[in-house]
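Lecture 7 notes: from sequence to structure.
We start with the chain below.
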Amino acid sequence: MGNINPSLLHVGSTLGAVFMALMVIFIRLKASARPVTLRKIWIPPLGMSTGFAMFVVPEVRFPWWWAVVAFLIGWFIFAYPLIRSTVFEERDGQIYAQRSKSFAFILLGLLLIRTVLHEFINRYVSIPQSGGLFFILAFGMILHWRVYMYKRYTRMALPKAPIPQPRG
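Predicted structure tokens for the same chain:
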């Protein structure tokens, strides 16, 4: 990993995660003022998927089963609070995400859990490997959340079928 001091790398990654969490909170608060679209639902996981290029670097690689476990933890555990805090509402014929007072606390809580887990995992794997594991965990979390959003959005956006009237 070059000549970067591991403790500086650890502090830098933690500060970067805090910065990213604050940015997500800020962006989500502003986004609630604009209607939800399919594009806005799918751009984050598509953009994030470019991060898989990090696995080209040998120092980041780890066994496949680690990746599967990290993804499943993100999908089933970390996505749950985000899913529970995401509620859509229809206004003026458009669909909006309701502002959630708990969303910022959920993100900060997930960040805290991530930081504690990072401390534990760094004892057993290198910093680049733990970065890769947490990336896969975050991808599983974001992907599950966005799949949920897509399903809710399409359910609300599809035109309602007319109720058949009895003949007679």
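Points to note: The longest strand covers residues 88-91. The radius of gyration is 19 Å.
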